[in-house]
Task: structure prediction
Amino acid sequence: MMIVAKPTIKQAEQAEQAEQADDEEKALLAPTPTSRTPSGSCSLLTKSLGGCAALLFVAAVAVLVIGVCTDRVYWYDHSRNHSQKVVYYLHFHKAGGSTMCTMAYANNLITTHRQNCNLRPANNLATLTLAGQLEFWENTPYEFVANERSMPAEIDMVHFLYFTTVRHPVARALSQFHHYGLDSHRGTTFAEWMQSSTPHNLDNWYVRRMIGLDEGEVVTANHTAAAIQRLRAFTGVMVTEDYERTSTILALRLGWTDTDTVSARSGTHHDSNPNDVNVTSIAHLFHYDMLFYEAALNKAYDDLRDLTDDH
Result:
């Protein structure tokens, strides 16, 4: 696969000037109602080889710009090895997912970096059956994909490596609250927002998204057990509050050489402390997520210890 160099700012300006000049020339040469325009010849259209070259250069620049905006895979120095597993990242909102996406890009994994490593439509991965997941794995050019929605009912452990990042449930929800700007724009308190039914079911966020519960469905202990069981099957779990240390799992599991979470941090830079709010009246909304979070911490540090001992 040939790699095409990205145009410099100066080249882009020159292309724009050439395009403007060519437009002016074509306007002067526009046929009258009684004349006929020859077809199939660039030189007849522009009356000059220079104009033809300008058209070709502008077309090339347009292709390059489209590639930049859509994260086209030809920007990479390699293509996906279709015999290898795809890294599948479950992105819990406000738990460090944007940082994870940036690190994947920094480690030269083919992904949709400008889309926060998500696919379009955003719910693509959330709705795939096992057969659909297999078909996706067989055909996708990407090595790293993220899902900011819920996990499907069944997951393909054969063709994907599953990772996620967790954060203290209250801190995560508080960060989401600040991100939406509800504290400053609508006069809504954090507790009021958590108890509301819109825009999402906000209680026990981790459990809901790990097993794909329908909106409005009440989270139970059985749901939590199923979510924890699925989590334990993941290849790796990182912890937002200890991202720098737990991201070592990415180096040990995937061979990533760049796990600098500080430089890669690219989400909302708002440090939300769970001790800053009184959640006594809404503690029940985090009950099952706290159990999930504890299980995630245990897995993260158990895996880190085992991997470090092996090395």
